[in-house]
Amino acid sequence: MDDLLTVSDLEVGFQTESGLARVLDRVNFHVGRGEIVGLVGESGCGKTTLARAILGVLPENSARIASGTIDFDGRDLLAEDPQDLGTEVRGRQITFVPQDPFSSFNPVFTIGAQIEELMKWKSPESEPAAAARFYPRARRRSDRARVLDLLRTVQLPDPDGILKKYPHEVSGGQRQRLMIAMALLPEPQLIIADEPTTALDVTIQAQILKLLKRLAAERGVSVLFTTHDLGTAYEICDRITVMYAGQEVESAPSDDFFAAPRHPYTKRLLESLPSREHGISGIPGQIPALIDPPSGCRFHPRCTNASARCAAARPGVTQAGPAHRVRCHHPVDAAREAVS
Amino acid sequence: MTPPGTDLLRLEGLQKYFPIRNVWKRRIGWLKALDDVSLTVEKGEILGVVGESGCGKSTLGKTVMGIHPPTGGRIVFEGNDITGLKPHQSRDLRRDLQYTYQDPGASLDPRWKIGKSLDEPLVIHTGLDAAARRERVRDILSAVGLPESHLDLYPHEISGGQQRRVGLARILTLQPTLVVLDEPTSGLDVSVQATVLNLFLDLQKQFDLTYVFISHDLSVVRMICDRVAVMYLGKVVELGATERIFDAPRHPYTRSLLSAIPQIGKQRITESFWLEGEPPDPGNLPSGCRFRTRCPLAEAQCAAGIPPLVEHLPGHADACLFSDRAVPGG
User: Fold this and answer.
1) Is A279 an interface residue toward B (CB < 8 Å)?
2) Contact between residue B261 and residue B216 where contact means Cβ atoms under 8 Å apart
3) Is residue A2 over pLDDT 80?
């Protein structure tokens, strides 16, 4: 058992005015220790919901977890007392890098004050159980040294000066560096990065990806990296899982994934990236409404390989290679495609 | 004055400065969003304008449209100088020049049905009666691939890709010659983006359009543009045919921008990317070349004067003194 995180048969729905939206449909997913896993899919495919379910921050009054387990380092995140998880796991063992660094800081406090608040509660030195009403001076001093050290590691110029600034005074790239620093400060085992570079320019994105990849490797942290951009997933992920409309459809090591995709959806998704070979081609049809999703494999109404079986039952897992799993009744055969 | 050839739009030394004010509203400097931009758009071509956020590409589009009055320079459209004309004077000219906003959802009135939004430009710009307008709207709607039943829907009831189509239909009802597309594919999923791009190309053929395609997505620009202008902090730093720019970029900024795009199957940028730092504060620019603070080729000369945009190769201009040199590590 060397997987850090295992999600099995997770089914999550949201209660809406027009009925229950079945956003995750029996999702199986795992993250190994020290592994960077990409969770790729188009908008509305449930990748953010999965990330939130792992963090335990689904909206309480509308989310319904129908079945499934989330096992993190031997603890069942769905069964245990949320209070304990809040102090021991969330923000300490599992941290989060948000998509939008602009709205993740409080604009009326300095960055230094906000990082200090984080360290008061979540510093690796603090006692998890003790109420952190007091912040001992000795620990405050060592935490501050730790913060400055990490700000230097994420290549922020003048760490002392930055702590005195307000969030609007630093650029978007610097804010995202701060977010990564804050995610690393509690020395977590897993970082959930929810589209961390979508809001950034390409040159800044390249710098941030480089940084995240280096730090994850240096510190042996696992990263769950959600993105809609296959290019960024190619850059940093060791393994990639693709989701479509709340179902995971394919999971493979990065090289295998791009060289020989087996699921028709993955293949079409890769082809719809603008490129010389494929020109501009999309996927006809639309993402299904999750209130009333198609039965069986949810991709079957748009799939060219679909048969009656696809509508009847959701395909099981087929092993398409070492660590390459695909859930399709009619997987694309890379070798046969090449011949025809 | 009227130039020969087929220039549809010509910008001559266009400038747009925004004042920077302190808390007492006193002007303490200028933000040079566009500084001495000269370029031409030929009839029937797609000109890409690329750059990172804050480089002035949207300001360029909006200044051409007259949404921002230019600080200096001239905008010549179809041989007529439209710089600084009052709205009523230029209305007839501007009918041929249209603009699509970045976020079509926000540019449609949430309380109007799609049909009414499509009807409005015709009411303003043409004297057609209601029946003729309805006819025109229907034609355009089918051209952009939307069913007629969508006329009775509200903007929130349709998807992002469909909202783009409505935004496009709305300007096509006026039969423009030049369309400025501001980030037309941002926020769309790749599979939807492809269909929207194909729509742009189809409509261009069908209606004989010329596009100015403003985007930060270089892989899209590469696919659909004929020529590309690369902007950095209010200046055009490189201008040329798409193929030339993508295959053999000359300005160090363009080279860094291209090397930052993740390419599946190629070397990973996390191993090869060399550009450090972030763009300087646009309100407090370095002297001379604006890229010199991050540029690996920079020398003392670069600080002395702003390098002009020169055609070092035929049809391929760049604004760098040392663009013949190789970038170390690049």
Assistant:
1) yes
2) no
3) no
The token pair that represents A113 in the structure block? 């004050």
Residue among A42, A201, A228 minimizing CB distance to B52? A201
Count CB-CB contacts under 10 A for residue A94: 25
User: Per-domain residue ranges for chain A?
Assistant: 3-237, 243-339
Integer Cα distance of A307 and A309 in angstroms? 5
d(CA A190, CA A30): 12
pLDDT digits (tens, 9 = 90+) for B52-78: 888 888 899 999 988 889 999 999 998
Indicate the CATH number of B7-96+176-318 among 3.60.40.10, 3.40.50.300, 3.40.190.10, 3.20.20.140: 3.40.50.300
Interface ipTM:
0.82
Angle between helix A111-122 and helix A172-184 axes, rounded to 10 deg: 20
DSSP string of B145-194?
Answer: T--GGGGGS-GGGS-HHHHHHHHHHHHHTT--SEEEEESTTTT--HHHHH
Handedness of CA A186, A187, A188, A193 (dihedral sign): positive
DSSP B194-245: HHHHHHHHHHHHHHT-EEEEEES-HHHHHHH-SEEEEEETTEEEEEEEHHHH
* Residue carrying structure tokens 């055009």: B236
Tokens found for residue B107 = 């540019």
Q: Which residues, numbered 229 to 268 in chain A, qualify as contacts with chain B under a Cβ-Cβ cut-off of 8 Å? A: 229-232, 234-236, 258, 268
Tens-digit pLDDT profile for residues B176-199 = 999 999 988 887 888 888 888 888
CB B203 within 8 A of CB B168: yes
CATH of A3-237, one of 3.40.190.10, 3.40.50.11540, 3.40.50.300, 3.30.70.100: 3.40.50.300
Instruction: Encode burial over A226-261: b for 16+ CB neighbours within 10 A, e otherwise.
Output: bbbbbbbbbbbbbbbbbbbbbbbbbbbbbebbbebb
E strand spans, A265-307 = none
| pLDDT (0 to 100) of residue A278 | 72
CB contact under 8 A, A280 and B269: no
Q: Where are the domains of chain B?
A: 7-96+176-318
Contacts of A171 in chain B (CB under 8 A): 278
Q: Which phi and psi (to 5°) does residue B85 adopt?
A: -75, 150
- Of the candidates A301, A272, A246, A265, which has an alpha carbon nearest to the alpha carbon of residue A11? A246
